[in-house]
Amino acid sequence: MNYIKTAMLLAGMTALFMGIGFMIGGQAGMMIALVIAAAMNLFGYWNSDKMVLRMHNAQEIDESSAPEYYGLVRQLAARADLPMPKVYLIDNPQPNAFATGRNPENAAVAATTGLLHMLSRQEVAGVMAHELAHVKNRDTLIMTITATLAGAISMLGNFAFFFGGNRDNNNPFGFIGVLAAMIVAPMAAMLVQMAISRTREYAADRMGAEICGEPMALASALNKIAGGVAQVRNPDAEHNPATAHMFIINPLSGEKMDNLFSTHPATENRIAALREMASTGGSAAFRSAPSRPKATAPHSGSSPVPDHPRRPKGPWG
């Protein structure tokens, strides 16, 4: 089903790209936009995840460089019955995380140093389980390609500002068309991001709570991340706002209202949903689920994600 949604998204954004190209340069502009959109769709399918990771200066880590963080992701991936994703660390004081990749076999999860320093191990587990839920639900392809194309559409609007006023560009709408393109392009890109992100976050919260087995750990993490985002700027996210919908909490601002113009549902509403889930025992689905033997953690106990009190806690010390 998500492949059909992805195809519809690509078709819709390609049509939007062509429409903006027509407003800027007439039929010639529309054809140029079509060629660019087709090339970006193809390139985006194979490379959009790498682009997003590069935008945020994410560095791949392994078990030797970050054993606690890497081992936690490995344990959660086993519980979710997912292939082990690539694991990245972003040197950024703002607490946040995202997932990317075109499918579970080519997925990656990334967390900031701020997230690992601010949250407890159980809370980090809740966040990474949320990101793995996006991978399991196959949201990452749609979210990553949307980030790439939304950025391109916004750039097309900027292009209209610098070159759309040329009288020789065969623009049938003249300056009004250029002005419309400048306004419509970034707004359309933003609306697409909102439509993609908002409903998926609730689903990922629920599945993430099931994977880690602790809805209240994820709820606590969301509360801390929202507070951290409100206090700590993220320059990389501000330079690449089209990727904002990929993060577990909007890295650009602390949204307070669950309205049409927020890229994420209100954090308060997400926490309330997790509290209700905890009170009704809705996280029990993964508690007794068998893990893959090759990926199980060296310690197991009554807690779905044990804290290992006798071992160094790495970034969670």
From TrEMBL:
Q: Report the protein name in the record.
A: Protease HtpX homolog
The UniProt entry's GO biological process terms, in alphabetical order, are: proteolysis
Stated family: Belongs to the peptidase M48B family.
The enzyme's first-digit EC class, named in words, is: hydrolase
Stored Gene3D superfamilies: Metalloproteases ('zincins'), catalytic domain
The catalytic residues are 131
Residue span of region Disordered: 279-317
According to the UniProt entry, the coiled-coil residues are none
Any one Gene Ontology cellular component term annotated for this protein: plasma membrane
Q: Which UniProt keywords apply?
A: Cell membrane, Hydrolase, Membrane, Metal-binding, Metalloprotease, Protease, Transmembrane, Transmembrane helix, Zinc
Protein residues bound to Zn(2+)? 130, 134, 201
The protein's location, in the record's own words, is: Cell membrane
Q: Which HAMAP family match?
A: Pept_M48_protease_HtpX
Q: How is the cofactor bound?
A: Binds 1 zinc ion per subunit.
Tell me, what is one Gene Ontology molecular-function annotation carried by this entry? zinc ion binding
Q: Which part of the chain is the Peptidase M48 domain?
A: 72-277
Where is the chain membrane-spanning? 7-24, 30-46, 141-163, 175-196
